[in-house]
Amino acid sequence: MQGTKLYVGNISYSATSDELRELFSKYGEVKSVNIMEGRGYGFVEMSSTEEAAKAQEGLNGLDFKGRTLKVDEARQPRDKQDKGFRRY
């Protein structure tokens, strides 16, 4: 793992940022939590790559509020101008 930001998928729509912060804090210091409302996913930033790796290992596949979490390293956002095709 190279980064400290984690993608968290399949989040229950009733889950709150505080609940997610509490869950991830068992693996280290949580710097930020951002749930995309109504989308079922969000991002959690840990304070170190080691803590992020532990959280990913410990929480990926966990049943949380009736849903199985998908925890993975967050990818860098794509350039908004790059839509997958070339401009000539």
Describe, in plain words, how this protein is organized in 3D:
By secondary structure, the chain is α+β, with helices and mostly antiparallel strands. Helix content is 22%, strand content 30%. The chain has helices at 17-24, 49-59, and strands spanning 5-9, 30-36, 41-46, 63-64, 67-68, 70-73. The radius of gyration is 14 Å and the shape is globular. The relative contact order is 0.28.
Essential attributes:
globular; alpha+beta; four-stranded antiparallel beta sheet; two-stranded antiparallel ribbon; 88 residues; Alpha-Beta Plaits
Structure summary:
The chain has 88 residues and is α+β, with helices and mostly antiparallel strands. The longest helix has 11 residues, at 49-59.
CATH level-four homologous superfamily name? RRM (RNA recognition motif) domain
Q: What is the strand arrangement across the widest sheet?
A: 2-3-1-6
Please count the beta strands (DSSP E, at least 2 residues each).
Answer: 6
Task: Please count the helical segments.
Answer: 2
Mean pLDDT: 90
Q: Structural class of the secondary structure composition? A: alpha+beta
Q: Mind telling me the C-alpha Rg?
A: 14 Å
- Under CATH at level 1, the class stands as Alpha Beta
CATH architecture: 2-Layer Sandwich
